[in-house]
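Regression test case RT-17, inverse folding.

Input:
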C-alpha cells in the first residue's frame, strides 16, 4: 500500500507531472509545500509547461523540467534523455490527460501514483501502477489533496494546506510600477480560449460593475489579461464606456507580476479562469462568475460561497436537466449561458463580501 510504503523511510526522489493549466498548477503548489514540510530531505522534480513554469519559477526547493507542448514527441524524448539516469522512488501523475500520460512512459519510477479510476480521464489508469483513494464528486483541489491523503501525509483538511504562490521581488516591483494605486479591484474579464467553452460574461455587465465599484466604494478597476484580440477588445470597450477611472494592464504584466497585483488587490472579479485560483492561492477575496461550469468542481476553493453561481439555472435552461442529472463537472456549452448572470447578482456579492472582508487602505 502507498500509505504505508513511505511511513518509515521517506522517498529520496519524487517526480511530479502537472503540465497545465495555470489555475490547476497554482492549486498543486500546496501539495508540493506539504511534501517539503513532511519530507524535507526529498528531492522534488516537477515536469510542467512553459507558461506554467513562468508562474512557478522561484518555488524554493523544486527542480523544474519544462516541456514545450509544441515540441510534441520530440520534446518528450528530450526529457526522457535528461532523466535517463534517474529512477524515482515515486511519480505523482497529477494530470489526467493523454499527453501527460504518454510523457510519463519514459520517466522511470518504482511507484507511479495516479487518480482513482473515476477521476482518471483519458485512460490514465493504464499508465500508473497505484491509484489515490476514491472520492465522490470532488473539487479539483480535493483531487490533488487526495495524493497526500493516499500517502498518509495530508493535513486534516485541504484548506489547511499552505496556499502561497512564489512571487519574486522583481514581480512585486513590476506590479507597483504598473499600478501605483493603493485601492483597486482586479478584473480579468476573459477566460482561456477553448473550443465551445463559453465562460466570458457580457461587456455591459463589466461596465456596470466597474462603475459601481468606483461610485460605491472608491475602488478603481484594473483590467488584466493576455495578448489575445478578445482581451484587448474587452479592455478597450470597458475603458471607453465606463464613466469612471480604469487602468488597462492587458498583456502588460508577467504572470508573477499579475499574482503580485492580485495579492495587493482589495478584490478580484473573473470568470472560471486562472486569476480566480491565483486570488485563492494568495488569499485575496474573489468573486467568480460561473454559469457554464460547476462551482463545486472548479470554483475558487476557499471562496466558493462568493461565486455568482448560475450553473444550476444554465443546466435547466440549456441542458433541460438538474445539476444532479448531469455528469460531475459537465459543462453547459451554450453561448448565452453567461448572460444568466445579472449585474444585481454581482452587486449583491460585492456588497456582502466587502462588508465581511473589509481591508484597510
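Golden output:
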Amino acid at each position: 500500500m502507498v500509505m504505508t510504503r513511505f511511513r518509515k523511510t521517506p522517498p529520496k526522489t519524487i517526480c511530479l507531472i502537472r503540465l497545465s493549466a495555470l489555475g490547476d498548477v497554482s492549486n498543486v503548489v500546496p501539495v508540493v509545500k506539504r511534501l517539503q514540510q513532511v519530507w524535507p530531505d526529498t528531492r522534488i522534480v516537477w515536469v510542467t509547461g512553459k507558461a506554467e513554469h513562468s508562474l512557478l519559477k522561484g518555488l524554493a526547493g523544486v527542480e523544474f523540467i519544462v516541456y514545450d507542448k509544441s515540441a510534441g514527441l520530440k520534446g518528450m524524448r528530450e526529457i526522457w534523455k535528461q532523466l535517463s539516469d534517474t529512477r524515482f522512488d515515486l511519480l505523482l501523475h497529477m494530470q489526467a490527460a493523454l499527453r501527460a500520460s504518454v510523457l510519463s512512459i519514459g520517466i522511470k519510477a518504482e511507484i507511479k501514483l495516479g487518480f482513482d479510476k473515476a477521476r482518471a480521464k483519458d485512460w490514465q489508469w493504464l499508465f500508473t501502477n497505484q491509484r489515490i483513494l476514491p472520492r465522490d464528486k470532488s473539487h479539483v483541489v480535493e483531487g490533488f489533496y487526495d495524493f497526500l491523503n493516499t500517502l498518509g501525509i495530508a493535513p486534516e483538511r485541504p484548506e489547511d494546506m499552505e496556499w502561497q504562490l512564489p512571487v519574486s521581488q522583481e514581480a512585486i516591483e513590476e506590479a507597483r510600477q504598473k499600478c501605483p494605486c493603493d485601492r483597486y479591484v482586479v478584473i480579468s474579464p476573459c477566460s482561456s480560449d477553448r473550443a465551445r467553452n463559453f465562460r466570458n460574461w457580457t461587456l455591459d455587465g463589466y461596465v456596470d460593475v466597474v462603475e459601481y465599484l468606483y461610485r460605491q466604494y472608491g475602488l478603481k478597476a484594473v483590467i488584466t489579461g493576455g495578448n489575445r484580440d478578445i482581451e484587448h477588445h474587452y479592455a478597450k470597450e470597458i475603458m471607453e464606456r465606463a464613466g469612471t477611472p480604469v487602468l488597462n494592464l492587458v498583456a502588460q504584466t508577467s504572470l508573477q507580476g499579475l499574482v503580485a497585483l492580485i495579492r495587493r488587490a482589495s478584490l478580484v472579479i473573473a470568470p472560471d479562469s486562472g486569476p480566480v485560483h491565483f486570488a485563492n492561492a494568495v488569499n485575496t477575496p474573489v468573486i467568480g462568475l460561473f454559469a457554464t461550469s460547476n462551482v463545486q468542481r472548479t470554483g475558487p476553493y476557499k471562496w466558493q460561497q462568493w461565486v455568482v453561481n448560475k450553473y444550476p439555472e444554465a443546466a435547466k435552461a440549456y441542458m433541460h436537466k438538474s445539476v444532479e442529472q448531469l455528469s460531475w463537472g459537465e459543462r453547459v456549452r451554450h453561448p448565452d449561458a453567461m448572460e444568466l448572470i445579472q449585474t444585481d447578482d454581482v452587486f449583491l456579492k460585492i456588497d456582502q463580501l466587502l462588508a465581511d472582508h473589509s481591508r484597510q487602505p
